[in-house]
Amino acid sequence: MIDVAEALTRVLHAARPLPAVPVAAAQALGLILAEEIRSDADVPPYDKAAMDGYAVRVADLRSGSAELRLLEEITAGAVPSCPVESGTATRVMTGAPIPDGADAIVPQEATELTHRGGEVQICVRSERVRAGQHIIRRSTLLRRGETVFSPGRVLTPIDVGVLAEIGRATVSAQPRPRAAVLATGNELVPAEQSPGAGQIRNSNGPMLCALVADAGAEVADLGIAQDDAAELSQRVRQGLAADILLLSGGVSAGVLDLVPPVLRNLGIEEVFHKVRLKPGKPVWFGVRRESQRSTLVFGLPGNPASTLVCFELFVRPALNRLLGRAEVSPPQVEGCLLREYSQPGDRPTYFPARLRQEQGTVRVELLEWRGSADLRTLAWADGLACFPAGRERFQPGDKVTVILHQSSTRPVAGRADAADDFSDRAGRTGNPACVDHGWAAPGRT
Fold first, then answer.
1. pTM of the model
2. Average pLDDT over residues 405-414
3. Helical spans, DSSP H, in 166-221
4. What pLDDT, on a 0 to 100 scale, did the predictor assign at position 410?
5. Which in 26, 123, 133, 422 has the greatest CB count within 10 A?
């Protein structure tokens, strides 16, 4: 049995950032850019109006007012047909090109229209009109050939808009890992089915799918496999098409804990089995190497808390490494215990906790948890308090580290904006993930 730090080191040694591939810019949100992006055009590509008004010559308005002959009206998308000369003006809408000869825009509300001798006259009454007023000059925002983004940038929604503005429909980026999730156990039934005698609903599978999607990966749900070596082998083979395969249950020492031998028989190299932690001790990790690709395989314990702890400690860092992210481990915050805690045994323990802000100090409130099957209490936690091995009793005020749930949006008691503070540190990805992909097992839903 190895320590958590050693287990994580081995996981990260096996995980390598995925090679960059062409990705549609509209689907690249949250991905890491793998190329330098340069603008293919000036932005804006012409001098354009920043508001509705009249394109004029400043020289005509030195006295602060003038009557000018209206030449034409230019809307966005249209092109001026004649230049603005002395004594004339052109009406322009926001975004429209500025006609030659004009060097300022007078807002529409500072003018009046009159008709004289069959011509439309614009009466301008403005205290001061300066050259360049309300005009966005060509290439003010970007110049053709200018570097816009450099490799390593995590693409944001605004970045996607910029890419469209400069004509980049496709970019080279590190792709989202493909993950497959398989729950195991004769006792499991789908969420929509009423459990019979000795049965429970499958909660780990849907939770793992959501965790994978939250981490920024694509996910395929392979459903539930019975505790049968032949069926497990067939399902695992399907999951090996993914970059990461997550199995839930069947990794401990029971009669029907068949996952480790099945994985070994399929040529998956065991890296470790069992880690010194609580909950989550039976966790299994291995690698299937084939030709130019490999699949990381995690056998997670069947209890929900064990599954969650092992995901945050080992699976999420592996996904982050595949995505090419600089920070791979889950975010943490240090706080002071609100009540006493005692732990037996010699393994580090992870306990669900809420966070409070009191007078600038983070307080850690341990929840009334009923053990590793208690998923409901975990749903109310802001994170997992970490109690190191070698110490049995912790007193109120003692400092502990809390691994933050990255998707947590619950308010933190005692401070209105504390939830934003903690979730910002958590670095939520916000990346949507597709559930149905061509590489998933054929015929499965």
1. 0.81
2. 52
3. 204-214
4. 45
5. 422
